[in-house]
């Protein structure tokens, strides 16, 4: 029988999942806006555009202010927008992580079965945003005399974007490996944990947990690190590299941690059921 206390806890956990979805969506939106603003800014910092900027800046100086360098104003506005998008993305990601932390704390208040269910839901949310949100932004730039800091190339990719680019570049084997272990296996694992929490009396549930315990050490962290560096290595060379971690990395790493905890919870739950 479900008590009033348990009903309240379940409602609270459901609300935490909803909060994660809301702030995860906001973090994704702002991260994409930051990506677009940075891409636009990188375009303004090409050699050709910087040369035009310097000429307009000189014209403004020689005209004693009668001629306005509108490009300069647009550039400053774009930089401000970029900072705002980045800050918002970080804040919304933090809020989503705090909601996830609250979800994990429920381990001490609810049964293993309920924790496995809600933990799997939380893991699924972080996995989805971890896959679609940019994880790393790489800029190749070079200091050029008279022009200043010239951007030679700009790349921003998430896990899905990295896989697509690898396929496009002909690195099919690597792309397939990352697709399997960083996308398909995590999705299957999370959905299976949900199945286990709902049908824990099924003999199939025991086999699922055992299977993912065996392959778990081959997936997630190592392959994801490889995927991250592949985004870096597939960028064009020719200058100094500057890499910047994006919100997607935090969501994906959160999934890795939560999925491990939920797997242990499911394993313990089924062990007690056997006993």
Topology of helices and strands:
Blueprint: H1 4-44, H2 47-62, H3 70-105, H4 112-132, E1 136-144, E2 148-157, H5 159-168, H6 172-198, H7 203-216, H8 221-233, E3 240-245, H9 247-274
Helix pairs in contact: 1-3, 1-4, 3-9, 4-6, 4-9, 5-6, 6-7, 6-8, 6-9, 7-9
What does this structure look like?
With 275 residues, the protein is mostly helical. It has one domain (4-274). Helix content is 75%, strand content 9%. The chain has 9 helices and 3 strands. It has helices at residues 4-44, 47-62, 70-105, 112-132, 159-168, 172-198, 203-216, 221-233, 247-274, and strands spanning 136-144, 148-157, 240-245. Strands 2-1-3 form a 3-stranded antiparallel beta sheet, sandwiched between helices. A hairpin with a 3-residue loop joins β1 (136-144) and β2. α1 (4-44) runs antiparallel to α3 (70-105) and α7 (203-216) crosses α9. The protein is elongated and about 85 Å long. The chain starts with a helix and ends with a helix. The relative contact order is 0.14.
């Amino acid at each position: 029988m479900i008590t009033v206390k348990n009903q309240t806890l379940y409602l609270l956990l459901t609300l935490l999942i909803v909060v994660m979805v809301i702030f995860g969506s906001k973090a994704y939106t702002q991260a994409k806006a930051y990506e677009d603003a940075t891409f636009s800014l990188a375009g303004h910092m090409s050699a050709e555009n910087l040369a035009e900027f310097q000429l307009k800046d000189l014209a403004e100086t020689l005209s004693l202010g009668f001629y306005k360098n509108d490009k300069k104003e647009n550039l400053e506005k774009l930089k401000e927008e970029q900072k705002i998008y980045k800050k918002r993305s970080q804040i919304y990601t933090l809020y989503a992580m705090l909601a996830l932390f609250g979800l994990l704390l429920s381990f001490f208040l609810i049964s293993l079965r309920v924790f496995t269910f809600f933990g799997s839901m939380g893991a699924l949310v972080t996995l989805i945003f971890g896959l679609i949100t940019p994880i790393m932004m790489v800029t190749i730039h070079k200091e050029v005399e008279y022009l200043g800091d010239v951007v030679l190339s700009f790349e921003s990719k998430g896990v899905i974007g990295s896989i697509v680019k690898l396929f496009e570049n002909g690195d099919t084997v690597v792309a397939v490996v990352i697709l399997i272990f960083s996308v398909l296996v995590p999705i299957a694992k999370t959905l299976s944990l949900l199945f286990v929490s709902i049908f824990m009396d099924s003999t199939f549930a025991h086999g699922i947990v055992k299977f993912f315990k065996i392959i778990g050490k081959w997936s997630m962290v190592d392959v994801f690190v490889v995927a991250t560096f592949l985004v870096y290595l597939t960028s064009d060379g020719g200058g100094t590299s500057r890499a910047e971690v994006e919100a997607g990395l935090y969501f994906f790493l959160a999934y890795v941690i939560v999925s491990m905890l939920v797997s242990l919870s499911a394993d313990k739950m089924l062990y007690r059921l056997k006993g």
